[in-house]
Amino acid sequence: MSAETRVLVVGAGGIGCELLKNLVLSGFLDIHVVDLDTIDLSNLNRQFLFQRCHIGQSKAQVAAAAVRRFNPNARVTPYHDNIMHPKFDARWFARFDLVLNALDNLEARRYVNRLCLVTNRPLLESGTAGYQGQVTDYLFSQLFGFAGDGDEDSTTTMTQTTEGGSDNAEEIRNLQLEATALKRLRLHMLKDTFAREVFQKVFDHDIRRLLSMEDMWATRTKPTPMTFPTGTAPATGDPAAEGRGGGATGLAAQRVWDQAETIRVFSDSIARLARRFAKLTGRLDPTTDDGTLPEAALSETGMSFDKDDPDMLDFVTATANLRSLVFHIAPQSQFDVKAMAGNIIPAIATTNAVIAGLIALQANTLRRCGFGNANHLPPSCQTTYLVQDTTRPRLLYNEKLAAPSPTCATCRRRYAVLEVDPTRATLGDFLKLAQKYATQLLLGDDLIIEEGGRILYDPDFDDNLDRTFADLGLGTNQTVSLTSEDTLPPYIWPVSFWLVATTTTTPTPEDNDQLPPLVLTDPSRLEMSPGVAAAHSALANSPESPPHPTQLAIAAAAKRKADTELVPDQTKIAKAQEKEEEAAAARSRSLSTGDFRTIVLDADRNAEKSRVTPPLTDEFIILDD
Amino acid sequence: MDKTRRYDRQLRLWKAHGQARLEAAHICLLNGTATGSETLKNLVLPGIGAFTIVDHRLVAETDTGCNFFVTKSDIGQPRGKAIVEHLKGLNEEVSGRWVNQNPETILDKDSSFSVSDYSLIIATQCSSEMLIRLAANCQEVGVPLVVCETAGFIGYLRIQIQEHTIIESYSGPNEDLRLDRPFPTLTEFVQKFDLNDPDSMAHGQIPYIVILLQYYQAWQRNNPEAPSMTLKEKKVIREAITRAMRHPDEENFEEAAKNVLWALNTTQIPPPVREILENPRCDQLTENSPDFWVLARAMRDFVQQEGDGMLPLSGHVSDMKTDTANFVAIQSL
Q: What is the ipTM, given to two decimal places?
């Protein structure tokens, strides 16, 4: 059984190393691991599959080799790559029985979650920070929400506020002045006076300009401009040098520098960075007589912040602290600045081991029950927290996962994979496909097609119908959303189509034409999940709000589904109806408080002018005339 | 320096002194089981000083299925030796050794073995007879003992420890204002402000500490005999402060109202601290006493003498709504 189980581990860092070990010890024999990182010295205090000799090598590859050595029968496939790379498309994700996140950033977590939703894969999500950690299993459920999902609740139109023409013109002139000043400053990069010039601009001139805006300081503490100390170039007694070489952990790094020290570090580090910049751009020898750089140097690429680069860390620490002094904020030690600027999260082997152990236990449980059933949210879905709190008697706490909510912008969305040949498939083809599945879609006739924030089609805008997906800039890993004009927002049940571009390998166009340009991989995904369907029918049965046609359609579909496939046992149906009635009664009680009210102006349908709606995250007003 | 980069992520949790304690530790594991090896892994990685594994078995096929720190090629080799080699590979700063003895009989058979040589003993898979003797031994010399067992999906962990003292300075959630016993410079400072100041700008800049103290002093004048303010009285004051706001955005009054409940408490030594100060160990100081008890005794002496019954003042003042001059003045009081 376990031999056929294929798992994906996303991340081979602190949790990933422990998890890979646990997986091979638990008899998982087909493991794929993705990580784009290389091994750093600071990883070795916990990522035990790596040793000093591996520094600089791919985490995924070294980790895979290390666990393979333990069990030569295990097939561990490493990918030294970003999980968000288009090559890991929906078809690739669909190959796995289980996805295990061992990530360190929200963006990738969201992405993996989304692909798990689209491809219906169970996901175990985890994270640690210091002594604390958590594990959550998500089985076909929702997580985080997606930035820019094109949902009517989350998309906002980008607007630019302009306050009258004359103000605008002045604003533009100021911006130009500022740009010129900064450019001139940069040309002086290699001059001895550079540090002083930057200092005077940032901590004196700019602050004075801010102070001149009286309104700004009515209710806050005014900053105090700071001037560069007069006298010879400060060069000695650089406190940062004491801690340098080993990064921000030396003694001087733990101590907060005084103002004079901070200014010395500022001057010194800015000179070091300027020399590096000049070298990087090949402008070590200034070509103009007075030591200024030629303008061409400025168009070249800059350097980006790296918390482990001592020059940059010195500069950031000193600059941040000088600004803090100007604004009367307590300065910080270099050690603490490094943690803040580098977004460093403390990490130890023990916490990762505990969390990875919990993941492996849960993975085993899921394997035993066949990775759940696509139409059910198993009651075991839970989050386990590892807490460090001496006032609590336990280390581990469980919490049941909340069920999807029909009023949640992310929950009520459906997800499906659409295979397209972008050069042949047109938006019209897509519309036809959508109309073919109209019954399942429950979106009515007036469909809207969106991508991100842009509308590709609505009943009054059909210009794009003859354009291909390629023409519209749509390809692998993009999402096309289907919503409707016909429904009221609380009851819209939008569908996200995750695109997979099929590369046409057939040599002749004739053969090509045999293949449909658009294939909906699994039409059953257009059905809504029973949990949300039940919630919808509860909404529809609410006595105080006359049901909308869409609601009725949804309720009918839900009932059909419940009758036919879900619960053949009559007592269960009766129980479910009882529960529904209870929910409806509870809702009508809560509705009578009248806390949430949506104003619906709908001239077309002559619908009620005002109605009480269930609590939503944001209030909305629809003007539809 | 190299070491501080290697340990960077953990130094942010337990700082240099925690690391120093870890590096001074020598930990002994009885039986090289999978659980024992995993435990040592989590200690070797952050850099304990040394570890010793007492084990007399040879690596068996069953070990390789559950213990990540032995491999198939180790089968038939001494188990303790194999685990030591694998664990040492995790961190070159840590020294490890193997004692080829049966942990069950080591207390009788190996006179060179003494629990007092170690900072911590971890026992796995020991018989209860052995554990009882071991626990008595550890208790006698004050060495902590950790006993852990696992079987399938269940496990067990027990710790025996005599006393564990930690000296760590940190600041609590609230600052220590002692408004019920204001020091003279604060009283003087507070008198400079008029809560009925007609200048609304100045009114909006009165630090909340001043507002609270003036209300407190008014209460004291009306209740000269009362030992402390009741919760009900505090709520009345909170109400009065809220009413005194000239407009809804007067943040200083808002801060004052928000902080009434704790800031007007009677200053006292927190019961857990008092318990430590009253512990007889403060009286029984010897040259071998842990620093903790020496420090506790010094603290008690201070409280009884200079402190006038109170703990030393940290002097920390967090940010508040006022102008810079006032804030700096408060900080320097």
A: 0.74
